[in-house]
Structures are given as C-alpha cells and as structure tokens.
C-alpha cells in the first residue's frame, strides 16, 4: 500500500475509483473492477452507492 488513497483519473473508466484502489493496493485494476462487479451483483445498490460516495469524497491524484 502506498499510504493514501487517491483517485486515478488517467486510467479511469468511470470515476477513477477502481484505478485508484489498484494503485493503492498494488493489485491489477482488472481484478479490482471484477471484484466491484461481483460486489454489485451480491449487494445491489449498496456497492454502487459506496462507489459513488468514494469517488465523490476521495481526492484526485493531480
């Protein structure tokens, strides 16, 4: 882990949350995105709400 979580808008597909999590944890971004899809299928709107909230509250990597 790199210390602080930052959004990565340069590798972003939607808001940069998955790319930021991948940078922060050192895990490939594909696995993070697949995990977010599975979390959405399991928890429904809760995962989507947390994703949007994270993208809204986290700081940019600029």
Describe this structure in words.
It is built from 3 helices and no strands. It is an all-alpha fold. The two termini are 19 Å apart. The mean pLDDT is 86. The longest helix is centred in the middle third of the chain and has 15 residues, at 29-43. Helix 1 (17-25) packs across helix 2 (29-43) and helix 2 crosses helix 3. It has helices at 17-25, 29-43, 45-57.
The pLDDT mean sits at: 86
Major sheet: size, sense and barrel closure? Answer: none
- Roughly how much helix do the residues carry, as a percent range? 55-70%
Low-confidence stretches: none
Tell me which oligomeric state these chains represent.
Answer: single chain
**What is Rg?**
11 Å
Structural class: mainly alpha
- Count of individual beta strands: 0
Portion in strands: under 5%
First and last CA, distance = 19 Å
Global morphology: globular
Number of helices: 3
Strand and helix order: HHH
Brief rundown of the structure:
This protein is an all-alpha fold and 62 residues long.
